[in-house]
Every structure is written in C-alpha cells, then in structure tokens.
Amino acid sequence: MKNKIALIGAGNIGGTMAHLIALKKMGDVVIFDVNEGVAKGKALDIAQSSAIEHFDLSIKGTSNYADIKDADVVIVSAGFARKPGMSRDDLLVKNAGVMKEVAEGIRQYAPNAFVIVITNPLDLMVAEVQEKSGLPANKVVGMAGVLDSSRLRLFLAEALNVVPDEVNAFVLGGHGDTMVSMIRYASVGGVSIQELIDMGRITKEQVDQIIARTADGGAEVVKLLQTGSAFFTPASSALLMAEAYLRDSKRVLPCSVKLNGEYGYKDIYVGVPVVIGKNGVEQIIEVHMNNEEKEKFQISCGKILEMKKQAAQILGK
Ligand code: TXD
After folding, report:
1. 173 DSSP assignment
2. Which mutation among 93, 118, 214, 216 tests ligand 1's pocket best, with the greatest number of atoms within 8 A of CB?
C-alpha cells in the first residue's frame, strides 16, 4: 500500500514538500489550503512532471478536510508569517486560530496519523495541535531542531572543509534565538570539536561565531529573501522526520516533543533528541548537560513558558 501524506498549507514550505515527496517517491500527496486555487495549482503543476520525473503518485490539491482521510502522516505549515507592523502577539493569535482548525480536521479525518508541525511560533503551535486534536503526544511533534542542526552542520563543515553529512551536531531548546547548540557533543568523523580545536583545525572563536550564526540562521535567510522565510531546508527537515516514521528507521533527531519529566520539565513542548520509528516518538533521549548548557536550556524553556502564559491570557484560556 502506498503511503498517504497530507500537507496542511500549500505555501512555500507546503509546495516544496509536495515536490520533494514526489521526487523521493514517498507516497500519495494531498495538499490542503484555505486558498483552494494555490493547493490545486501546485498539485497539478507537480503532477504534470510525473512523466519526466518517473513517479506514479496521486498529487491532489483541496480545501476540504475530508480529503486528508486516513493520511499516514500530516505535516502542518499552514498559517501566517509576521508582516511589518504585526506584533508577535497578533501572530500568535492568528496562527493559534489556524492550528485549532487544523487540529479539528486531523481529529476528525486522520486521528491515527503521525503529525509534524512547522508553523511558528513552533513550540507553542505544536502544543496547540496536540491539545486540540487530542492525539497522543508521541504522535505529534514539531520540526525545528533538524533544520537548526542542519545549519550548524553546514557551517562547521564549511569551516573544516569537509562534507556536511560527516558532521554530527545537534541543537536543543526552543526554536528561536535561545536555542542551545550542543557543541560539546558535535564531532566530525567521530573526532570531537574540542579535539579539533586542540589540533588547531578550527579556533574556539570560529566555533563561537558559527553557534551565533546558527541561532540567527532563519533571520539571515529572511534578510536576503526580503519577502518570506526559509523553505527548502525546512521542507527537507520535516520530510526526514516523516521518513523515519514511515520506514520505522529509529532515527535519532532533535524534535520539539512534549516532555513528561525529562530534563526536569513537564507539559512543555521543546526541542530535544528523540528516536522516531513506527510508533512516532519512541524514546526521549536525556543527554547530560553541564551547568552552562543547563542554564541556557532553562532560559530557553522559560521563554516558551512565558509565551505560553501570554498566549493563554490573550486566547482567554
Ligand atoms: O523551523 C521552523 N519550524 C520553521 C517555521 C522554519 C521556517 C518557516 N517556519 C514557519 O512555517 C513560518 O513562520 C510559517 O508559520 C510556516 C509556513 O511557512 P511558509 O513559508 O510555507 O509560509 P507561506 O508561504 O506563507 O504559506 C502559508 C500557507 C499559505 O498558502 C496560506 O494560504 C495557508 O498557509 N493558510 C492556511 N491553510 C490552511 N488553513 C488555514 N486556516 C490557513 N491559513 C493560512
């Protein structure tokens, strides 16, 4: 049986994911958007490349939630981006409203799906979808860490003149400028970054600059694009997570998941390394943190909790 992947949001990320799914032959695609024309237009455009790209998949656009019925994976990138003059609070209210609709659609038509949320503010939006859909926490995750880690890996690889996939590195914490780059665990071909600093292959200053650039990674792209935000790597990142679930590959990936006592937190969605397989989040890995990392992680969680409180006040719950 072919997999069915539902994409909620046919914007830059949704459209790119649909295209990548077709090229990777991952499964049939349904692209949902309130803007029906965009969903249908992108689906049709991608489908028209099937003879050239050799895929035999159904690619469909819709504005009817019934069409996501029994999807194996649902990936949510629907929502609004912050426009000039729009406050973070305005964005929060608007996107929380979108997540409520999406959660309802998932609850009704795809309650057994593995759900990946991309919409910002990420850690709050994924919590909203999990809460409103009523799906178990192991089946609802947020994408941010894979993207942020991929940026970190690229920048380290460029500095060391090696291929990026030889670099192992991950970031933790909330998606935003408080993310924690766990550089102590980063390595290249099994050799730790600290060792590489000692060997004179890279300096501590370079590493610090790379950490700062990673934290600013989204903003750097936004500044160059002028309109919109990054979409190629966000799309690839979400699909890596989807693939781990569909193939039961037990991949270790940093994802925003609901903690239940791990790292000393409960009922908060935040980025930590997890194992993804056919049961969704199969393990939450608690890596040891030194005092400095702990402090940064706590600041990051504190920021999410503060936003959550603000959101509850604004949304009146
Ligand atoms: O790391 C991460 N998590 C992120 C998050 C990295 C990059 C971008 N990130 C966020 O993803 C970004 O801040 C946005 O909140 C989302 C989607 O980004 P994208 O670049 O795809 O945004 P677009 O192109 O504006 O697309 C959004 C689409 C657009 O087609 C709208 O018509 C649609 O969402 N939309 C809706 N679809 C369904 N249902 C509702 N209610 C709805 N409202 C808008």
Report:
1. B
2. 118
Quick: pLDDT tens for 253-283: 999 999 999 999 999 999 999 999 999 999 9
Instruction: Encode burial over 55-74: b for 16+ CB neighbours within 10 A, e otherwise.
Output: bebebbbbbebebbeebbbb
Q: Could you report the per-residue pLDDT of 173-184, keeping only the tens digit for each?
A: 999 889 999 999
> Is 175 labeled as catalytic in the residue annotation?
yes
225 lines ligand 1 (CB under 6 A): no
> Could you give phi then psi for residue 105, rounded to 5 degrees?
-60, -40
Kindly give the distance from the C-alpha atom of residue 78 to the centroid of ligand 1, in angstroms, as a whole number.
4
Q: 26-35 pLDDT, tens per residue?
A: 999 999 999 9
Residues in the chain: 317
* Closest atom, ligand 1, to C-alpha of 16: 21
